[in-house]
């Protein structure tokens, strides 16, 4: 999926919430094979810009 979005990191909204992540990322709803519903993900183009 990183190739598709030209990104360095992609993680689910659930992971972001559980980790307390509040950073600025591009959000997208994606279809994952084997899942019934779309998944909300955070897309990070350049991981060096993350404030963690």
How would you characterize this protein structure?
- By secondary structure, the chain is an alpha+beta fold.
- The protein has one domain (2-47).
- The protein has 2 helices and 3 strands.
- It has helices at residues 2-5, 13-19; strands at residues 9-12, 26-30, 39-44.
- The protein has a 3-stranded antiparallel beta sheet.
- A hairpin with an 8-residue loop joins strand 2 (26-30) and strand 3.
- The protein is flat and about 35 Å long.
- The N and C termini lie far apart (23 Å).
Number of domains: 1
Beta fraction: 25-35%
Number of strands: 3
SSE topology string? HEHEE
Spatial strand sequence of the major β-sheet: 1-3-2
- On the 0 to 100 scale, the average pLDDT is 93
**What is the radius of gyration computed over CA atoms, rounded to a whole number of angstroms?**
11 Å
Task: Describe the secondary-structure layout.
Blueprint: H1 2-5, E1 9-12, H2 13-19, E2 26-30, E3 39-44
Could you give a quick summary of the protein structure above?
With 52 residues, this protein is an alpha+beta fold.
